[in-house]
Write a structure and sequence with these properties.
The complex is a heterodimer of chains A (243) and B (291). With 243 residues, chain A is of the alpha/beta class. Chain A has one domain: 3-Layer(aba) Sandwich (Rossmann fold), CATH 3.40.50.300. In chain A, 38% of the residues lie in helices and 27% in strands. Chain A is built from 11 helices and 10 strands. A 6-stranded mixed sheet of chain A has the order 6-7-8-3-9-10, with helices on both faces. Chain A has a 4-stranded antiparallel sheet with strand order 2-1-4-5, covered by helices on one side. Chain B contains 11 helices and 2 strands, in the order ααααββααααααα. Chain B starts with a helix and ends in an 8-residue tail after the last helix. Helix content of chain B is 73%, strand content 2%. Chain B has a single domain, classed as Orthogonal Bundle (ABC transporter involved in vitamin B12 uptake, BtuC). By secondary structure, chain B is mainly alpha-helical. The chains are: A alpha/beta (243), B mainly alpha (291). Chains A and B meet through helix 2 and helix 3 of A and helix 6 and helix 7 of B. The structure holds adenosine-5'-diphosphate (ADP) and magnesium ion. The site of magnesium ion (MG) has 5 residues of chain A, from helix 1. Adenosine-5'-diphosphate binds next to strand 2 and helix 1 of chain A.
Chain lengths: 243, 291
């Protein structure tokens, strides 16, 4: 069954400050879409708008989950997650004083996820053996890379159909970045997910993305229909590849 | 047996039993203050409300005080949920918890006390039950049932709540709610609802603690104040958010107070218990089992 996400002409911001202007974007069923842009261009604001953390002042956001379509604007964050959209936010937002296992079990709070808890936990521990070793450790005492893995695993514990990830590479050593990106691909395939991933690390993101958007000053400046199209784009050369 | 050894043993035993009672009194604050960051200084007042419910059911209906408390649990839970909802709308939502919230709970303490005075007067009240009076004689030590039954009830309540918090989805969300509310939303949980349930539970423990209190000693409406300092000391000493730490702290304080009262006189007990608090916090600022 298919799950996808569409933003149509979305404006959003904080109080009087408008950040997103007329943003339209789609993530098709089973796709991995990269949202590319350097710091401060509105990637996180876009993700927060989808999740109901920032309320758009105009435009529509719709999600199709297993062939049923829902309007997201106006819904609370917890309702949106309950529909089957999981979000790994900036800064990971783990529960630092809870253990790895407790964090994962909290991920399965969503009623629909509770019956799948054993299967999801097995899958997470299989994909991230390190988490199994550290099952009883407090989340706050783990390294940045381990925390990122836990954040991803915790999001998957809610049995989502759509996964949003905000800058998974932030704060990780280069070797860990490519490993994390590989894991995202693995999880996406294992759970049959539709993924929207915000990244500054262009080279890494494009490795697993089917398509991508470049966001500049809150507007979609370029839409790349394939990884090659992104690679050959002027804007990207300018911003990322220094050419 | 040596007389002073006998004295020591009995002091330790009654200290343990007293500690069990302290745990029942503190567990509500361990939830509200330790897990929800709500400085509920009115909790001892709510416990007194529990005492008078038990007193009323006992004298008017001839009911066992503990049974009365169990029957009153849903009403206490609902009252707690209501108190939280008012607190949330008036203070928490406006980010005015610290001073506004403190005066709110101080006001509730005052209203509860005055209400109890108006209804029941200022005289000491007590309850009747078969276990008030006799002791279990274990040969080398006397176990007064008046303390032993409350100890058991308290432990059942603590263990029950601990299991609920660690084993249920709702319980785990309660343990996490103070750490990051947005993160909890991202787990599909509504933090306000979670806190309302938790505060309802915290309030409900006052029904049990109140019944225990009036079994152990006669009560008058303002007696709860004696416990405010001790209860917060126990929660901080145990490590905020940790029930097992809270129980260890409650029992430690009970034993230390009992020993001090036996060998140096009761007036030294509070000084020694706060001494224990200060020393522990100097060595372990997060408390005995704080995370
Ligand atoms: N909570 C906030 N309040 C006001 N302005 C914000 C807030 N968060 C982000 N901004 C502003 O919105 C713009 C876009 O930020 P953000 O969406 O975080 O970009 P990115 O994730 O691409 O780095 C920036 O100019 C930033 O200063
Ligand atoms: Mg960002």
């Amino acid at each position: 069954m298919a799950s996808s996400l569409t933003l149509a002409n979305v404006d959003a911001g904080y109080g009087a400050v408008r950040v997103l202007e007329d943003v339209s974007l789609t993530v098709g069923a089973g796709e991995t879409v990269a949202l590319l842009g350097t710091n401060g261009n509105g990637k996180s604001t876009l993700m927060k708008s989808i999740m109901g953390i920032v309320r758009p002042s105009a435009g529509r956001i719709t999600a199709t989950i297993d062939d049923a379509t829902h309007e997201l604007v106006g819904r609370s964050t917890e309702e949106i997650v309950d529909l089957g959209i999981a979000f790994v936010p900036e800064g990971r937002r783990l529960f630092p004083k809870q253990t790895v296992t407790e964090n994962l079990l909290l991920g399965a709070y969503r009623p629909t996820a509770r019956s799948a808890i054993a299967r999801n936990l097995d899958f997470c521990f299989e994909t991230f053996p390190r988490l199994k070793e550290r099952a009883r450790q407090l989340a706050g005492s783990m390294s940045g890379g381990e925390q990122q893995m836990l954040a991803l695993a915790r999001a998957l514990m809610s049995s989502p159909r759509i996964l949003l990830i905000d800058e998974p590479s932030v704060g990780l050593a280069p070797l860990l970045v490519s490993r994390t990106i590989d894991k995202i691909k693995e999880l996406k395939e294992g759970f049959n997910l539709t993924v929207l991933m915000a990244e500054q690390n262009f080279t890494q993101a494009v490795r697993i993305a089917d398509r991508g958007y470049v966001i500049v000053h809150g507007r979609i400046a370029f839409e790349g229909e394939s990884a090659e199209a992104l690679n050959n784009n002027e804007l990207i050369r300018e911003f990322y590849l220094g050419a | 047996m040596d007389a002073s050894l006998d004295l020591l043993l009995n002091a330790v035993i009654s200290g343990l039993l007293l500690g069990g009672f302290y745990a029942a009194v503190s567990i509500g604050v361990a939830i509200s203050f330790g897990m929800l960051d709500i400085v509920n200084i009115a909790h001892p007042g709510f416990i007194l409300l529990g005492s008078y419910v038990a007193y009323f059911a006992n004298t008017v209906l001839g009911m066992d005080p503990i049974l009365a408390a169990v029957i009153a649990l849903p009403a206490f839970y609902a009252l707690g949920a209501l108190v939280y909802q008012i607190y949330y709308i008036a203070f928490e939502r406006r980010q005015d918890q610290s001073l506004g919230g403190l005066s709110f709970f101080f006001g509730l303490l005052f209203i509860t006390e005055v209400g109890l005075v108006l209804i029941f007067g200022v005289d000491y009240r007590l309850v009747q039950a078969r276990y008030i009076g006799p002791s279990l004689n274990l040969g080398w030590v006397e176990l007064p049932l008046r303390l032993f039954v409350p100890f058991l009830v308290s432990m059942v309540m603590v263990v029950g709540l601990q299991l609920f918090l660690s084993r249920s989805f709702l319980g785990r969300a309660i343990e996490a709610v103070a750490q990051d509310q947005l993160a909890l939303r991202l787990m599909a949980a509504n933090p306000t609802r979670i806190k309302r349930v938790a505060f309802g539970l915290s309030f409900a423990t006052a029904a049990i603690a109140g019944a225990i209190l009036i079994i152990i000693q006669p009560v008058e409406p303002s007696i709860g104040r004696e416990y405010i300092g001790r209860v917060f000391a126990i929660c901080v000493l145990g490590g905020l958010g940790s029930f097992s730490g809270m129980v260890i702290a409650a029992v430690t304080l009970g034993v230390v107070e009992s020993l001090t009262a036996t060998f140096f006189g009761p007036s030294w007990a509070p000084a020694v218990s706060f001494g224990v608090l200060l020393v522990t916090l100097a060595v372990r600022p997060s408390g005995i089992l704080g995370r």
